[in-house]
Design goal:
alpha+beta, three-stranded antiparallel sheet, rod-shaped
Length: 255
């Protein structure tokens, strides 16, 4: 005999009792529909979604009044409980894609399936009563815990936890549309960061600096473009040369 839950629309409360009811299928259909949305949103976590569905259908998700969820997990014949609130303490959480372990997914599935099943039960009751008003009689649904309202449209189950800070970063200046722009690359793997940096630099090759005129030697006269001779006395040393006019020039204008 399956354990079912009654929902009283007037008092907004849930009670438990044993018995079979056709609306049990509505709950299972709601879980299946939400799980398909999850697989489309998180294709890399399809296996974890399937595991989460089993957890939900086994009634191992307890939705707490504060919005958190208590998820039971069976391992090696023992039961462990994880409190899910955007993150989980299980071993799979740090290595799961975008931190979507089966316990986080199960909590999200349960919240949305509760809301979707409630909506479908209202529609069913309205159709049976021939009215669009919500039903006031008790209806049956399989979940064993009080639901937490959540959107039913196709969207990620919960806002993903922020990614940890990148271990490596690199800054580079490139010229885009004639403007110098500073770009910052971040990555958790240094080799991947360098590979991305190489691709970026190949896309924006550096502009060659115009060659500057070579610096003339110290004994070169920039006025007459001739070499000068070094002279020394007690006051010091200097370079100069004799001009064709018979004067002396030290290579400095005005002196």
């Amino acid at each position: 005999m399956a354990i079912l839950t009654s929902y009283d629309w007037e008092s907004d409360s849930w009670t438990h009792h044993n018995g079979e009811n056709p609306t049990r299928q509505i709950w299972r259909d709601a879980v299946a529909e939400i799980s398909e949305r999850a697989k489309q949103t998180l294709p890399e976590c399809n296996g974890r979604v399937d595991s989460a569905v089993k957890i939900v259908l086994n009634g191992d998700v307890e939705l707490l009044p504060d919005g958190k969820a208590k998820v039971a997990s069976q391992s090696h014949g023992t039961t462990k409980y994880f409190i899910v609130n955007g993150e989980c303490t299980c071993k799979d959480y740090p290595k799961a894609p975008s931190f979507w372990c089966k316990h986080r997914i199960a909590a999200g599935l349960a919240k949305r399936a509760h809301t979707l099943a409630k909506t479908k039960l209202e529609q069913l009751a309205s159709a049976n009563n021939g009215t669009t008003e919500p039903a006031t009689e008790q209806l049956q649904v399989q979940p064993q815990h009080e639901p937490v309202e959540a959107p039913t449209q196709a969207e990620p189950l919960v806002t993903p936890a922020p990614l940890p800070e990148a271990k490596s970063s690199a800054n580079v200046y490139v010229t885009i549309a004639g403007r110098k722009v500073q770009l910052t690359l971040r990555d958790h793997d240094e080799e991947q960061l360098l590979s991305r940096l190489e691709k970026l630099l190949s896309r924006f090759p550096s502009e060659e600096e115009p060659e500057s005129a070579p610096t003339p030697p110290e004994n070169w006269c920039p006025i007459h473009h001739v070499p000068m001779k070094r002279y020394s006395n007690a006051k010091g040393s200097w370079f100069s040369h004799k001009t064709p006019e018979g004067t002396w020039c030290n290579g400095k204008k005005g002196k």
